[in-house]
Amino acid sequence: MSRAKGSVAGAGSAEPQYRIDPLTLREVPADRAAAEAWLAGPEAASGPAAARIAWLRILGRLTEAEGEARASFAAAAAGDTLRDLPLAAVLPGIRLAQVLQRQGDLVQALRLLARVGEALSRSAESAAVLSAAAFLHQHRGKVLLDAGHPGWALREFRQAERLRDKPELPADQLESTRQAVSAALRALDKQQA
To answer: What is the model's pTM?
Structure first.
């Protein structure tokens, strides 16, 4: 069974809706045609790059998603993506890793997520850093699950769950993490059977 989820940008936006497939943990558009129309419209063009990149990825337009994600990451990293990443490059880096994962480049996705983790470890603890850390653990877990390492994925999902299990944080994020924990446990059971 899958669950419904809001839009990428959150409630109240004109974005289309998606659900999370419980087996693959990938977003599935509720209405593909509506998602394509939104992406072609002015809301996507003038809205946050994160939403546009996410919808390109969700719709399988991976070459476009990669181009936009790389540009967003380079801009946030002040053009220098080879050195230590600034905090501003963390979320764009995770989004680029999501695209790399969907393209099947799991090694590059994990390398990028490791660099993002290093940037977070150098940052002073704040609500934004903790939220980004949970996002990092969740998505590193997804890459590890795709790579056939459900035990390692479970460890990442549990870390995300600890960071997200706070009343002041959005409940849908915790629900998403718990769905990921369930997927990892199923994969682990299957692997051990």
So the answer is: 0.90
From CA 130, how far away is CA 68, in angstroms rounded?
26
CB 128 within 8 Å of CB 119: no
User: 27: part of which helix (H) or strand (E)?
Assistant: strand 27-29
Q: What is the pLDDT of residues 142-175, one digit of tens each?
A: 999 999 999 999 999 999 999 999 988 889 999 9
- Residue whose pair of structure tokens reads 């080879």 in the numeric block: 82
Q: C-alpha distances in angstroms, 59 versus 35, 99, 111, 127, 138? A: 8, 11, 24, 31, 21
Pairwise CA distance, residues 27 & 92, whole Å: 18
CB-based contacts of 15: which residues, under 8 Å, 6+ apart?
A: 7, 8, 9, 38, 43, 51, 55
From residue 155, alpha-carbon distances to 66, 67, 87, 150, 177 in Å are: 28, 31, 24, 9, 12
Closest CA to 91 of 58, 120, 132: 132
Query: Measured between alpha carbons, how far is 101 from 4 in angstroms, rounded to an integer?
Result: 22
What is the edge-to-edge ordering of all strands in the sheet holding 18-20? 3-5, 18-20, 27-29
